[in-house]
Amino acid sequence: MSAVIDSGRRRFLTHSAGAAAGLIIGFNIAKSGTALAQAAPPKKPGLPPVNAYLSISPDNVITIQLAHSEMGQGIWTTLPMLLAEELDCDWTKMRMEHAPASIVYAHTAMGIQMTGGSTSTWSEFDRYRQVGAAARDLLLRAGAAQFKVPAAKCSTESGYVLYKDQRLSFGSLAAAAAKLPPPTRVKLKDPKDWKIIGKPTKRLDSPEKVTGEAEFGIDVRLPGLMTAVLARPPVFGGKAKSVDDSRAKAVPGVHAVVTVPSGVAVVAENFWAAKVGCDALKVDWDLGPGATIDTEALRQEYRNLAATPGLNAAVAGDISASESAKPVVAVDYELPFLAHAPMEPLNCTAKVGKDSAEVWIGTQFPGIDQGAAAETLGMKPEQVKINTTFLGGAFGRRATGSCHLIRETVAVAKAAGVPVKVVWTREDDIRGGYYRPQWFHRAVIHTDSSGLPRRWDHTVVGQSILANTPFASFAIKNGIDESSIEGTFNSPYVKKTPVHRVALHSPASPVPVLWWRSVGHSHTGFVMESLVDELAHAANQDPVDYRRKLLTESPRHAGALNLAAEKAGWGTPLPAGRARGIAVHESFGSWVAHVAEVSVENNRIRVHRVVVAIDCGICVNPEGVAAQMESCVVYGLSAALYGRITLKDGRVQQSNFHDYQVLRLQEMPVVETYVVPSTEKSGGAGEPGLPPIAPAVANAVYVLTKKRLRSLPLDLTQT
Amino acid sequence: MKLTVNGAAHEVAVPDDMPLLWVLRDVIGLTGTKFGCGMAQCGACTVMIGDQAVRSCVRPVSTVGDRPITTIEGLKSQSGLHPVQQAWIDADVVQCGYCQSGQVMTAVALLGAKPHPTDKDIDAAFAGNICRCGTYQRIRTAVHLAADKMGGKT
Questions:
Q1: ipTM metric
Q2: What is the pLDDT of residue A719?
Q3: C-alpha distance from B59 to closest chain A C-alpha (Å)
Q4: Is A322 helix (H, G, I), strand (E, B) or coil?
Q5: Cβ–Cβ of A342/B132 closer than 8 Å?
Q6: Percent of chain A with pLDDT over 90
Q7: pLDDT tens digit string along B23-54?
Q8: Which of B22, B123, B134 faces A633 most closely, judged by CB atoms?
């Protein structure tokens, strides 16, 4: 335990947050118990409490509390960059920790502690710089007091306060700095003075991730910890009717079999015993209505719905006026359910006591997970401590409003009476729902004499992600879940079309759905960029020139488009058998264009090269942005070429990576990333690179084969 | 049953058919080797038995015998990181990092067999290692980088 100062409220607290003794500027965890069952409106605070975010040890190690979870996107590096830019510290002495669940770490725009929506960098751009600047101000004043000179005569450099030829380390000043009143305002550096922001910077979490030392949720070890594997209902919404656990209990190492709402848990000394025990269970399931779900039937239902009036998300001009001309494009597009399939299967560890509980979980939602665990256990949120580990990939899957994983885990741990780590098998993951919804689009488009769209009638059908979540009350307006249609109603092509309508149907189903990397844009990007390519070819115009005509009022779309086209050598000859396709899409505050170079052999689509141009405003870490573009291309290509979850009689027909295939190294295209220089506010990077990849590839396939593939995954044998 | 892991002898009392992965993780406590699929589809569990990369999630522990097992934890030496680990850092490969123990072990085994691998060799060696974050391009770069640094030495 170490005494730490809550400078915001001028009182002392104690904690045992695992940091080294000798903390000087410490963590504020006063409100760590405050759960946020639902989003609170974002506050407009003064300066963030410095000591909630960083501590400085006497040996000059800077420990930073991260308000966001590291799931591969690189925030473990970006937030320290922002802070260090203003603090002027020694970059080699940074240590990062995921912050505990606390309102102090609530998202600056969303009001809950969360990681998602490609928001981490821009939402923390001010806060982490302010923390760094405020800490620097404290240290500078502490140093000046020791030098007995005015602070204005001192400066800082790489972890030291300087006065003439004398210097004092931040570590030696931290105790004195902590006793000073924190500044009420700070002046942030002029961008021209930035030394870190904008410089390609290597990741700070590499060393522990290449040695096996990084702790993911699945690696948590505790005295007496047992592992649980659950038998889960074969269809969504099913419940265990009766359980014969005699054979399971006879498996050596099995400690207990407990039934919880989500299934029957076999709790054992290790994963293998739990798995063997689970396989030996005999469970009679009450299947319920989920047993009739069939993706082919859903396709037909969606098709039928598209022919009926939906809710209008956007209307311009007289869309109901009779139209005698034949549309240039009257087509349907379809996309399947998709599983996120992060490399680390879902898992969660809980130790439940009488009056408190502690949980270890790789989560995007520590705040609401805390509330959900407390609710499940009949405790108050402050009785539940959440430890966020590294996330072995997430892509949205570890951000569930239902908090099903933590609820399941604390229920099993409580029933079993021992600390338990629940581990999902890969089959549990692929068959466990929380999918990207299945989507259907119908577009009827008329063009004018120059070939540009004059009437665009667009209908979208698919499950709402936000319905029945804690976010529904403020995220669904007039029945319209904007995440279903983002990228359509606000598309520059649609807005440029004088007469247009975007309508939405949101049929419900027992299949749990969830945001999947790029959310609505994962389908709308494909559809819109394929449609505009269809229009360009119908008008006999070059796809880049055609888009330029529609993007005259969308300069950032045009900027990304032009940079990608230029760097890819658009219009220059390619080796025989190859063609280029292009797509540009805005999402999460960034504009991304891809040019894909593609060949087709025996109906097999091969992507050789992808040239990426991104306008993400101020680019804090170009190295990280390039990595995210590569990541988006791979994740998007997996979906474009392979991804498909189907159900028959309520059963998910895929189960593991052999039948839910993803891109492998030998299929990796060369990806080149170019960043549009910008001084605008930062946008996202984790998702915006995904939406344009599928259409860029499909548009190239069209050039090669004259086949317009209007469904994903792209399949030349189906046309 | 006796196992030699990273040069250390371990006596484990486990069923013969228990996959090596779970013996390493849950019995011996070496959690650097990861569970990804349980059916040799993703490579997250890759370790070396002798000089061969194997998928420990489907390898019954009783079939290992007295051959030495090397896991990600066994690569570091007193002189520091293994050149493959250093190359991974230099090429800024990792993202979430979960698959990287298996990727690094695959690289070490490849470079042991082929000190100067071609892109085709890399394609073949890594065909069984999935990365959902999409670090493949940087893995390729890092393997070449490590090969250059090691100069044929393993």
A1: 0.98
A2: 56
A3: 13
A4: coil
A5: yes
A6: 90
A7: 999 999 999 999 999 999 999 999 999 999 99
A8: B134
Range of the domain at B144: 83-150
On whether any CB of chain A is under 8 Å from the CB of B102, the answer is no
pLDDT band at A475 (very low <50, low <70, confident <90, very high): confident
Structure confidence at residue B10 (pLDDT): 98
Same domain, B9 and B42: yes
Tell me the residue type at A383. Q
- Does position A510 have pLDDT exceeding 60, yes or no? yes
> With contacts defined as CB-CB under 8 Å, which chain B residues touch A341?
132
Q: Which domain does A316 fall in, by range?
A: 295-337+435-718
pLDDT at A15 over 60: no
Evaluate the CA torsion angle A536, A537, A539, A545 in order and state its sign: positive
Touching B: A residues 83-142, CB under 8 Å: none
Among candidate residues A187, A210, A233, the one where a domain is terminated: A210
CB A481 within 8 A of CB A466: yes
With bands split at pLDDT 50, 70 and 90, how would you rate the model's confidence at A474?
Answer: confident
Q: Which of A458, A454, A456, A447 is nearest to A538 (CA)?
A: A447
Q: What is the layout of strands, in order, in the sheet containing A499-505?
A: A311-316, A499-505, A453-462, A439-447, A329-335
The chain B residue lying nearest A340, using CA atoms, is: B132
Whether residue B133 and residue A393 make contact (CB cut-off 8 A), yes or no, is yes
The size of chain B, in residues, is: 154
Tell me if residue B2 falls in helix, strand or coil.
strand
Residue of A nearest to B41 (CA): A657
Tell whether B48 and B16 lie within a shared domain.
Answer: yes
Given this model, what pLDDT does residue A568 score? 98
Domain co-membership, B7 together with B35:
yes
How many Cβ contacts (< 8 angstroms) between chains A and B? 181
Residue of B nearest to A658 (CA): B41
Q: Is residue B7 part of a domain?
A: yes
Distance from CA of B50 to the nearest CA of A (A): 19
Of B27, B92, B99, the CB nearest to A206: B92
Residues A636-657: tens digit of each pLDDT = 999 999 999 999 999 999 999 9
DSSP assignment of A402-420 equals T-HHHHHHHHHHHHHTS-E
The answer to whether residue B6 is domain-embedded is: yes
Q: Is B13 on the interface with A (CB under 8 A)?
A: no
Looking at the complex, does the CB of residue B119 fall below 8 Å from at least one CB of chain A?
A: no
pLDDT tens for residues A204-262? 999 999 999 999 999 999 999 999 999 999 999 999 999 999 999 999 999 999 999 99
Say whether both B55 and B94 belong to one domain: no
- Residue matched to tokens 């990084």: A214
DSSP letter at A183?
A: P
Contact A666 B19 (CB under 8 A): no
Both A546 and A690 in one domain: the answer is yes
Please judge whether B136 and A211 are an interchain contact, meaning their C-beta atoms are less than 8 angstroms apart.
no
* A11: Cβ contacts below 8 Å, ≥ 6 apart: none
Q: What is the CA radius of gyration of chain A?
A: 27
Question: Does the residue A393 lie in any domain?
Answer: yes
End-to-end CA distance of chain A: 67
For A19-77, how does the pLDDT look when each residue is reduced to its tens digit (9 = 90+)? 332 234 443 333 333 333 333 444 555 788 898 999 999 999 999 999 999 999 999 99
Euclidean distance between CA atoms B35 and B39, whole angstroms: 10
Task: Give the mean model confidence (pLDDT) for residues A494-517.
Answer: 97
Chain A residues whose CB is inside 8 A of the B124 CB are 666
Domain tally, chain A? 3
Phi, psi of A461 (to 5 degrees): -130, 125
Q: Do B133 and A664 touch (CB under 8 A)?
A: no
Nearest to B133 among A214, A271, A631 (CB): A631
- With contacts defined as CB-CB under 8 Å, which chain B residues touch A663? 134, 136
**Is B20 an interface residue toward A (CB < 8 Å)?**
no
Residues 247-276 of A with CB under 8 A from B: 252, 269-272
Of A344, A631, A638, the CB nearest to B98: A344
